Amino acid sequence: MKIGITCYPTYGGSGVVATELGMELAARGHEVHFVCSAIPFRLSAANERISYHEVEVTSYPLFDHPPYALALATKMAEVAEQASLDLMHVHYAIPHSVSALLARMMAAPRNLPFITTLHGTDITLVGNDRSYLPITRFSIEQSDGVTAISNYLRDRTLREFEIKRPIEVIPNFVNCDVYKRSDNPLLRARFTRNGDPLLVHLSNFRPVKRITDAVEIFALVREKIPAKLLMIGDGPDRGAAEYVVRKKRLSKDVFFLGKQDHVQDILGIADLFLLPSDEESFGLAALEAMACEVPVIATNVGGVPEVVKHGVDGYLFQPRDVATAAKYALEILTRSDRGRSMGEMARANAQKRYCSNDIIPLYEAYYEKVLNAGRPTARSAS
Ligand code: GMT
């Protein structure tokens, strides 16, 4: 198949999923065209079946806001024509599904179906802003196929947007051959020389991630045992988290590593993953940690309980209850095996339910289903 993929290229879960999906599809023989405003940050162009088409958004003094959605629609239609795309697959509804809808109309009479994958904040935050709700609902209704990355997100979208069409759940995935335990002693020695436990957090540091809570949890752990915290990522709340670190005199114990390309290397040496978000429709970073045999302590919100089983892969706690999270963290880290058996269980569960080898074929089958539904014979038969 020839597949166009659009996503936000910046540090964020939806871009990661779209990029990993494109690379997995190319490895399985499909031709993949990324149509984005910049190269997605995890995209390695090692595969000849992957191309990248940049959306150039020109500005003009008259425009308060450069018209990204229109430039994107134009580029999608152009790429569809030049590369004879079979379909477009857009990640994050706003504004990508609206652009794909325009591109489908521009491409007519050529058939250019599009699939929208909902990731979370496109529904839970942006889509619920009254001004965005009608157009988000419209573009979801108009999509040729819609997927959501958890049951929670599907149910919430159907309920809050009063959507009547079916939404297929295709969960996020992890490449279990790439994300695995590495126990790299040299890398570990960069952060801890005497075997102290390593806690880790990974996100885009937006307010919804509550990264100051990650530091607060660590501070409570650090009061009881020596330990280090690795903060991977960057974003608006980094300054606030650095302030808490300084205030609690933890500067020697907390490392802000910035945006990292190969997060699996760091996850692979960690002992515990912290995900204290206020809202999380899946929690991809937690799954990546689990695949690396790292137990997870996460908030009991959104789709997280579908991924992390309380008492099995780690523990769940109520948002902002840092004391309970710290208690769970200490319970794991002070065990004689420092949570290794829980980590092994976490990997086994990640492998059983979320390996790319099992999830990518679900996308392929869904593409086929959408393509078949759009073929003239199928239309006249229905
Ligand atoms: O977490 C973010 O704010 C980024 C956001 C995105 O769309 O880039 O992440 C969402 O999509 C991820 C990938 O499907 C999910 O794992 C995250 O749970 C989801 N974030 C939220 O729901 C807050």
Quickly list its features:
2 domains, 382 residues, single chain, Rossmann fold, binds ligand GMT, 7-stranded parallel beta sheet, 6-stranded parallel beta sheet, alpha/beta, disordered C terminus
Note down, in words, how this protein is organized.
The protein has 16 helices and 13 strands. The protein has 382 residues and is an alpha/beta fold. The chain folds into two domains: 2-173 and 356-373, Rossmann fold (3-Layer(aba) Sandwich), CATH 3.40.50; 185-353, Glycogen Phosphorylase B (Rossmann fold, 3-Layer(aba) Sandwich), CATH 3.40.50.2000. The strands form two sheets. The chain has a seven-stranded parallel beta sheet, with helices on both faces. Strands 10-9-8-11-12-13 form a six-stranded parallel beta sheet, with helices on both faces. Strand 8, helix 8 and strand 9 (228-233) form a beta-alpha-beta unit. The longest helix is centred in the last third of the chain and has 19 residues, at 356-374. Mean pLDDT is 93; it is low at 378-382. Residues 12-15, 17, 92, 119-121, 124, 149, 172, 204, 206, 208, 279-284 line the site of ligand GMT.
